[in-house]
Design a protein that fits this description.
With 312 residues, the chain is α/β, with parallel strands linked by helices. The chain has a single domain, classed as TIM Barrel. The protein contains 9 helices and 15 strands. It has a 7-stranded parallel sheet. Strand 4 and strand 5 form a beta hairpin. Helix 5 crosses helix 6. The longest helix has 16 residues. It is globular, with a radius of gyration of 18 Å. It starts with a strand and ends in a 16-residue tail after the last helix. The structure holds ligand HRO. The site of the ligand O=C(O)c1[nH]c(=O)[nH]c(=O)c1Cl has 15 residues, from loops.
Amino acid sequence: VSTATSIAQKKFDNCIMNASGVWCYDEKELLEVDKSKAASFVTKSGTLQARKGNPKPRYFETNFGSINSMGLPNQGLEYYLDFVQKIQQQNPNKTYFVSCTGFNVQEDVLLLEKVENSGFKGIVELNLSCPNVPGKPQTGYDFETVDMILKTVFENYEGLLGVKLPPYFDIVHFDQMAKILNKYPLTYVNSVNSIGNGLYIDDAQEKVVIKPKNGFGGIGGDYIKPTALANVHAFYQRLDPKIQIIGTGGIKTGRDVFEHILCGASMVQVGTALMKEGPGVFERLTHELEMIMQSKGYEKLDDFKGKLKYIE
Ligand SMILES: O=C(O)c1[nH]c(=O)[nH]c(=O)c1Cl
């Protein structure tokens, strides 16, 4: 069996990689993912200037997932572009992802100009869904702004571009977002980012567990898998087939990978489980997926991708 996949005709020998924000802050972490069984890596979302992020503790693991309010700590987009250019020379046949996010459309355009000027030939992920910058609303929930950003961005940018979206919870929102996304030459849509502004409590201390935003933070892990699968499948049902889907959210076993692909994902990304287990998680997940495929007689992803059955 083969767990190989492709995004925009770029071939990957596996369909599992890291989610932006996890194990991708600096060269050390990115090299560890690059050396693992992961198909590729995506960097932490780079901003125009490097950022320290929110005060700690800003990440907390629970039995069922995680809560975070990191506040976009990153080395700045140019750091990630320089690093990927360097590593690309060593692995010319590998396609890498660089994530970026601006605080307004002017910044988004500037970031993508920096990407084009750097000669980066991989895939850009525009993060429209960071839930943890105090005072900034989730761009992904402001449909007019998403439309305006994509219109403006695609007036200038000619490279491969995907968008990272927050989770939606209303069928009409899937319809409205898909209508907007279908207007643009997007390479992929990545669903989902964390479920924003959850709250986890330490009962013994009767206290929150992260410092920023009085304990409110993005939720990941087991808690969000049903929402992630629904978003992957809703967009798979609605988007032009030229726009592929990356599935993120609640992946910690080969079964979770299988389900995301059954819902229509061409690639899956791992966040919380990677944070808990480290880059060895990619070998385990790949093996578990291969076992499932073997038991079902599937040889490649296309044998079951998007083929979720409904009840007649
Ligand atoms: O607080 C963060 O850095 C963060 N945390 C998330 O859960 N998703 C994001 O996109 C970002 Cl940018």
